[in-house]
Amino acid sequence: MQIKKYAPDKSGLAYSVGVTLDRFIKIKQEDFPFASGELSQLLRDIALAAKIVNRETNRAGLANIGGAFGHTNVQGEEQQKLDVIANIRFMRALSKGGEVCAIVSEEDDEVIDLQNKSGKYVVAIDPLDGSSNIDVNISIGTIFSIFRRVTPVGSPVQLEDVMQPGANQVASGYVLYGSSTMMVYTTGHGVNGFTYEPSLGEFFLSHPDMKAPQDGKIYSINEGTYNHFDDGLKAYIEDCKRKEYSARYIGSLVADFHRNLLKGGIYIYPATSKAPNGKLRLLYEANALAFIAEQAGAKATDGQQRIMEIMPSSLHQRTPLYIGSTVMVDEVEKFQSKSMAPAST
C-alpha cells in the first residue's frame, strides 16, 4: 500500500470556504477554560436559533407572519408576530441546551427559570429588535448578553443572578438580519463577525478582529424628538450639521450600531423631557452592545457614566445610550457638560 502525506490543493478550483462559527468557537475554547465547554455550546445554541429566526424573517411576507400579534409586552409596546416567534425559538434553544438556568427577555414580564439544575449561565435577550420594520423590509436584529450566575449551581435562581452590571458579562453579541445575516460576538477577547451562508447552513468568519474607527462622520439619532433634547445635545447636533456630518438613522438599533461600528460614527438615544430615563433597556440592549463597542475600541455611556458600570435596579430598566467612536462620544459629553455647568457671575 502506497501512502503519501496530505498537501492542500492550491489550484484555482480549491478556493477556501472559510472558518465556520462552530470551528472558530472550538479554537477559542482556551479563552475561557473555566467554562468546560458550556459557554461554547451556549453560543452554538444561540447561532442555531438565529438560523431559524433568519428563515422565518425571510418568509414572513409569504407565510402571513408579519404585522402585529395583538398583544403588548411589558414595555407597553405592541408585539409583532415575529417578536413572539423569535422569543419562542430562542427560549426553546436555550432551554434544551442545558447551559442556561434563567432568561430575561424583552417579551416576558418576569425572569424565566428554565429549571436546568446544572445551568451556569443567565441570558438577557431582545429576541427581535426593530421587528416593526419587518413589514417594510428593513434590517432587524437579535441582541444578547451572557452572565455567569453568582449563586451556587443547582440552587434556585435568585435575583442577584440576573441583576448584574454589564462589566460582569462573559459574552455578548447580536445577529443582524439584513441583505446578509451576520452574527457578531465577543467573549472579552476582541470582536468577530460571521456571515451566514444559507446554501450550506453555516456561519463563516467574515470580519475577524473587528475594530471601530476612533472617529467618524456619521450621527444616528431620531431628530423627530429634537424639541425634547437638552440644550447640550441640541448644540452637538447643530455642530454635526455645521461640520456636514451624515445623518443616518434606520430606527433599528442593531443595524444603526453595526454600520457605525464598521464605518465610524455615533448612535444616540438620549434622555428627553418626554422620556427622562431614555428608552433602551439596560440588561439586554445597552449592556450587550457596550461590551462589543469597548472590545472593538469604541465607547458607550449614558451621557455621564460608563454603561457597563451601571448597577441595574429592575429587569426592564431603561437607560440613555451614547455609543460609537470614542472621539465622538467624548465630544457629545463635552457639549452636555458645558450646558450643565453653572453660569459664571
Q: What can you see in these coordinates?
A:
This is Fructose-1,6-bisphosphatase class 1. Its EC number is 3.1.3.11. One of its GO terms (cellular component) is cytosol. The chain has 345 residues and is an alpha+beta fold. 30% of the residues lie in helices and 24% in strands. It has helices at 21-27, 38-58, 60-63, 81-97, 159-162, 231-242, 253-263, 282-295, 326-340; strands at residues 68-72, 78-80, 100-105, 112-113, 121-129, 140-148, 169-177, 181-186, 191-197, 202-207, 218-220, 246-247, 266-269, 280-281, 299-301, 318-319, 321-324. The strands form 4 sheets. It has an 8-stranded mixed β-sheet, sandwiched between helices. It has a 5-stranded mixed β-sheet with strand order 12-11-13-17-15, sandwiched between helices. Helix 2 runs antiparallel to helix 4 and helix 6 (231-242) packs across helix 9.
Topology:
Elements: H1 21-27, H2 38-58, H3 60-63, E1 68-72, E2 78-80, H4 81-97, E3 100-105, E4 112-113, E5 121-129, E6 140-148, H5 159-162, E7 169-177, E8 181-186, E9 191-197, E10 202-207, E11 218-220, H6 231-242, E12 246-247, H7 253-263, E13 266-269, E14 280-281, H8 282-295, E15 299-301, E16 318-319, E17 321-324, H9 326-340
Parallel strand pairs: 3-5, 11-12, 11-13
Antiparallel strand pairs: 1-2, 3-4, 5-6, 6-7, 7-8, 8-9, 9-10, 13-17, 14-16, 15-17
Pathway: Carbohydrate biosynthesis
Domain Fructose-1-6-bisphosphatase class 1 C-terminal: 213-336
Protein name: Fructose-1,6-bisphosphatase class 1
